[in-house]
Design a protein that fits this description.
With 439 residues, the protein is of the alpha+beta class. The chain is built from 10 helices and 20 strands. Strands 1, 2, 3, 6, 7, 8, 17, 18 and 19 form a 9-stranded mixed β-sheet that branches. A 4-stranded antiparallel β-sheet has the order 11-13-9-16, with helices on one face. Strands 4-5-20 form a 3-stranded antiparallel β-sheet. Strand 1 and strand 2 form a beta hairpin. Helix 1 crosses helix 3, helix 3 crosses helix 10 and helix 8 packs across helix 10. The longest helix is centred in the C-terminal third of the chain and has 23 residues. It is elongated and about 85 Å long. 46% of the residues are buried.
Length: 439
């Protein structure tokens, strides 16, 4: 294999059209929307299986299930005498939900307008699924003699982990990634056609404030849980930004933002406007850059809440004279408001990719050869398992070729010309690493 391969444009668009046609059925928002990733895999296998070892071809294929209809797919182009590996993992088979009313086009049908390919999943991440599938198809057709094994893993359940034991965590647990520690692992699920050298941890939280229901004309006889929840979250944010401030490494890695802690949802009872609400819940997330530890952050947050409850009457600025978080009822009973913190699901750990590894040097070189330059960046978006893979000894690198401007948004699209470059970059990586790992 002397150089990169050109994308088979017609086949790529044909496959992507089929995958976007399944996007409606792989939306991931349980319990309302539970994806069936096998619907995507069936179209991939229709192209890959004719080149499988069972049909006399060079591709080793494993269709792994840990939940019914929710498959993961492993494809390998093996060297006869491997001196190392290069792996493309992370391209996922599920998508975030799309509301057709917010789109100018049908989100569940591929629409081609010049260089733009529209549809849910074109950027995140079915466009990458089709891209990496095309890489293996061209390896199977050209049959280059390589000194490295090329490994691909397409994963289920990336967009929502509320249903456990479905995707890449189970692939790792089952030992199916054990063979790819002998070379770089490229997680193909980011954007903007540059190497992504850092991501943040994602920690989801819920803060619930308990108060007392009462007539809003007599607010001094109630405890306003909405106000308490707002004050508690404000105090937690104040302390969070003091304890987890921007740090020099974030600048070195070119993170767009430092660590953040913010609410994104609010809920309360179905009370009338003239009632002080008895409870309120805010939910949100923490995006923690990889230079801080998730465990330290959680411990700090739990401490903030404990301090708020211990100082419920003084922790926040007064909201007038009638709104209080401790009241004495007519029977003499003293009633105090209360704040509770709950962690939602498992945290995604962040990663600072090694800037000195063979994988990093190779992807930067490949980008420069194909695109003329490379501008690595970091983002406080989050990916599953990448931190764990790095801790387990994998040379984990990240790249992607969609558009961050439409990530999870309406009118999602990718650029065909950038996907053509991406195909050259991935196959150029194989050329570079085949040469270096064989030395």
């Amino acid at each position: 294999m002397d150089g990169p391969y050109d994308l088979n444009e017609e086949r790529y668009i044909g496959l992507l059209e089929k995958l976007i046609g399944e996007a409606q059925y792989v939306q991931n928002q349980p319990p309302k929307l539970v994806p069936e990733e096998d619907r995507v895999i069936q179209h991939m296998l229709a192209l890959l299986e004719p080149h499988s070892t069972k049909n006399g071809g060079p591709l080793h294929i494993q269709h792994l299930h840990f939940k019914e209809k929710r498959g993961n797919l492993i494809v390998e182009y093996r060297s006869a005498a491997p001196k190392g590996t290069v792996a493309f993992v992370g391209s996922h088979l599920d998508v975030v939900p799309a509301d057709p009313e917010g789109w100018d086009r049908d989100p569940f049908k591929l629409t081609v307008e010049g260089d733009k390919l529209y549809g849910r999943g074109t950027t995140d991440c079915l466009g990458h699924v089709a891209l990496v599938t095309e890489v293996f198809l061209q390896l199977a057709e050209n049959k280059p003699a390589l000194d490295i094994t090329v490994f691909g893993c397409f994963i289920a359940s990336e967009e929502n982990s509320s249903i456990p034991e479905v995707g890449v965590d189970m692939v790792l647990k089952g030992g199916h990634l054990d063979g790819i520690k002998n070379g770089p692992v490229f997680w193909i699920d980011s954007a903007d056609s540059e190497p992504c050298i850092g991501t943040a941890a994602a920690i989801q939280w819920s803060i619930r404030a308990e108060g007392k229901l009462f007539h809003s004309g007599l607010p001094h006889k109630g405890i306003n849980a909405l106000e308490l929840c707002q004050d508690a979250v404000t105090e937690i944010q104040r302390r969070f930004y003091t304890d987890f401030p921007p740090c020099p490494e974030e600048e070195r890695y070119r993170f767009a933002t430092p660590s953040t802690m913010k609410p994104t949802k609010i809920a309360g009872p179905d009370n009338s406007v003239n009632q002080v609400p008895p409870w309120c819940t805010m939910e949100g997330d923490i995006r923690l850059t990889p230079f801080y530890k998730v465990e330290d952050c959680k411990k700090a947050m739990e401490g903030y809440v404990a301090d708020i409850n211990a100082n419920i009457t003084t922790f926040a600025l007064a909201r007038g004279t009638a709104s209080k978080y401790e009241i004495t009822e007519e029977d003499g009973n003293v009633l105090r408001g209360k704040v509770e913190l709950e962690w939602k699901g498992e945290a995604f750990r962040g990663i600072a990719c090694s800037l000195d590894s063979p994988g990093h040097h190779a992807i930067v070189e490949a980008h420069k050869l194909i695109r003329g330059d490379a501008k690595p960046y970091a983002i406080t978006g989050s990916l599953p398992l990448v931190g764990d893979l790095q801790d387990a000894g994998f040379d984990l690198q990240i790249s992607g070729y969609g558009k961050s401007s439409v990530y999870h948004g309406d009118n999602e699209y990718c650029s065909l010309s950038e996907m053509k470059d991406a195909h050259k970059i991935l196959t150029q990586l194989i050329v570079i690493l085949n040469k270096k790992l064989a030395e």
